[in-house]
Amino acid sequence: MLPGAWLPGACLLLLARLARPCPAGCDCFAREVFCSDEELAAVPRDIPPGATDIVFVETAFTAVGARAFGGSPNLTKVVFLNTQLSRLEPDAFGGLPGLRDLEVTGSAFSSLSADIFSHLASLGKLTLNFNRLEALPEDLFRHVDALQSLQLQGNLLPTLPARLFQPLARLETLNLAQNQLAQLPDELFAPLGSLQTLQLSNNALSRLPPRLFAGLGRLRELFLDGNGISELPPAVFSQLFRLEKLWLQRNALGHLPPSVFSSLGSLTFLNLQGNALRVLPAGLFAHSPGLSGLSLSHNQLETVSEGAFSGLSNLSSLTLSHNAIARLPAGVFRGLTELVKLNLGSNNLTALHADLFQNLTKLELLSLSRNLLATLPPGIFDTNYNLFNLALHGNPWQCDCHLAYLSRWLRQYSDRLFNIQTYCAGPAYLKGQVVPALKEEQLVCPVTRDRVGYQAPGPEDREPGDSWDLVAEDRAARKRCTYSNPEGTVVLACDDAQCRWLNVQLSPRQGSGSPGMTFNAAQGWELKSSCGSVRVTVSIEARTGDP
Ligand SMILES: *[C@@H]1O[C@H](CO)[C@@H](O)[C@H](O)[C@H]1NC(C)=O
Ligand SMILES: *[C@@H]1O[C@H](CO)[C@@H](O)[C@H](O)[C@H]1NC(C)=O
Ligand SMILES: *[C@@H]1O[C@H](CO)[C@@H](O)[C@H](O)[C@H]1NC(C)=O
Ligand SMILES: *[C@@H]1O[C@H](CO)[C@@H](O)[C@H](O)[C@H]1NC(C)=O
Fold it and tell me: Which region is the signal sequence (predicted)?
């Protein structure tokens, strides 16, 4: 670009500045004024008449005097961000009848006089976040009845006066998060008939007055997370007919009244993570059929009753991880046809019923990690056509014939395992092997009363009705025998054509007393299977110093 090309623009800018003077320490734009000079001693008196918004950022003056903006009646928005303000004189915002948006965030004042907002009849949004407010006068909002949004997050409020919100019938959003609220007057929120979002996260509430939320018939979102709530009054949510999202995580709930959610017919999301729940009362969610996200992780559930989630036909995400669940009834997930995500990780599950996930055709993500599972029943994922992310790590997998279904499923859908670090805990000679890398003929079972030698899963083992998906070719090659000695230290797997796999356990394990083989020896065994027996001789020579 030619050097001269930008000069006319610069001259125009200069002219514009001359034509519309801007207070020292501020920058003026069409309708906005930004003041961020630490030298600024007070709110400037010469705000351009056309300005509607003024923003102070990190300024150093500490007080706003009476009617400081009185010469600029057209201002609609006044903002102080991270300034040194510690005092707002009475009537500081007098003379601003059109002010709609007032924000003082990140300042040091700890109290407000009762009439500070008294002439702000147009104020729709008031933000007083992250100051040091310790108390509010009961009449503070007496003349701001147009208010729709009130933000008081991050102050030091321990409680609030009972009639504080009396004039705020039009309020839609109220944020009281991150204060020190330990007690709230009964019916504090009763006048807020238009309220849609109420945030009480991260306070110190341990009990809720029974009628605290009475009258909030329009409320859609209620945040109660991060308090110390140990008990919920049975009817505390009974008028929240339109509530859609309820955050109760990180509290101290040890039990729930059976009907506590029974009026929440519009509920779609409920978070109960990080409480101390041991049981879920029957029918707890029966009146919230539209629930689509439910988290119960980090509780102390030991089981979940058969009907706990019945009727939740819209549920798409269910999180039950980090509990102490040892057992799940076969039908606990029945009817959850929309379920996409199911987290059962970090529990004490030792076995799963073969029908547990039946007909969960939309299931995509399933975590069974960090449980006590040694095996999975055949067919368990047969109807989970969309399952593409399966977490199995952190279980003591017993890599024997019972794991053949899982092994085959993993081989068929090799890309679906979330964490490949899924290891065998037994038998001894497969300990530490990676489950998805195992060959099917390695998955053999020990001698039982009915079986001679080790037995690999073959077609003859199928239960009628088992529906393993074998291609015809695979089926033909299936005439397979796995021979072993009675101790299981020598295992040989063969099919019609050849023997493909031999496992010899070498030195006996300490104290196990099982006869293993020693080096520099030849040894023969009579190995048996249901197909008959074979004789095998193995010689092993170990030479020192020979690469
Ligand atoms: C306020 O705005 C009106 C209409 O936009 C304008 O006529 C008037 O001059 C402004 N007043 C001041 C004090 O700037
Ligand atoms: C389930 O979700 C669908 C689609 O979001 C919605 O139309 C339907 O009303 C919901 N069902 C219930 C019982 O809320
Ligand atoms: C769950 O398993 C852990 C670890 O194995 C154990 O410490 C805990 O006692 C078990 N909890 C229950 C309720 O069985
Ligand atoms: C799964 O669906 C089939 C066919 O609709 C049905 O017979 C079976 O009972 C269902 N199983 C479960 C556990 O819902």
Answer: 1-21
